[in-house]
Each structure stands twice: as C-alpha cells, then as structure tokens.
Amino acid sequence: MALKRSIAELVGLQVVKIIAGTFYMAGLTALIPLFPLVFSPQELSNARYALFTAFGFILAGFLIVYWFSGSHKIALRALGFFTLIPGTLAVFFLFSPYHMARLFRLFGELPYLEQYIHSYLPNAWLMAGIYITVGVFLVWLSARK
Asked: How far apart are the C-alpha atoms of 135 and 4, rounded to whole Å?
C-alpha cells in the first residue's frame, strides 16, 4: 500500500512539474519580445502589464513546484532544467540566419522575414545566452543545497 502511495505522489509531482514548467516557460517566452524595450524606458512603461504578466508566470511556476514538492532543491533543479530548454533550443535553431529562415519557411511565406531575422537574431542569441546561464546557475544552486 505504501508503494502505491509513493508512486502516486511521484506521478503527481511529475504532472505538477509539467504544469508549473508550462507557466514558467510561458513567462520566459513572454520576456523575449520585451527585451528590446529595456533600452527604451518609455516603451517599456507602456508594456508594463505584459512585463508583470511574464514575471507573474515565472513566479507562479516556481511557487507551484515549491508548494507541491516542499523543497527548494527540487524546485530550483526543475526550473533550472526548464530554463535550459529554450536556451539550448535557440542554440540549435538559431545557429545562423539561414537556419532561422529555413525554420520559418516551414510555416509558409512570411512577409518581411529577412528584415525580422536581421533585426532580432542578435537579441535571440543574447536571450539564449542569458537562459543558458540562468539555467546552469539554478541547477548548480540546487546541487549545492
């Protein structure tokens, strides 16, 4: 009977991690288009609701994992790996403007694709680096606890 309860708790925690990870990754994804606005405080103040929503999703993801696991270590490790996912995917998919264009062309013809790639690809690389750095830091921090 205790084994069944342990398995149920483990499966429940994994489901909660996936749900919380979805919130967390939604918050990280929402930060990407907001990043260029950091250099323009006037436009950033106009997007404050989107910024608060993104940080709210990130905080909700952490709190959900922490609340259900009861452990900082488990919460930090789970969110560290969830942070590494978009960072490493960006490294593989954003390797060059050619690969980025090829990826977008899978969805059909998109107007202004070349201008978008040249304007925002450097920002995507910066965000990928930040996500990888934060993800590695969270996993390292969880290992130290």
From this structure: 33
pLDDT by 10-residue block (mean), the chain, 145 residues: 71 84 84 69 74 89 86 87 82 63 63 61 72 92 87
Q: What was the pLDDT predicted at 88?
A: 80
User: Is residue 24 exposed (0-12), middle (13-18) or buried (19+ Cβ within 10 Å)?
Assistant: buried
Give how far the C-alpha of residue 26 lies from the chain's centroid of Cα atoms, to the nearest Å.
6
Contact 80, 136 (CB under 8 A): yes
Amino acid at 56: G
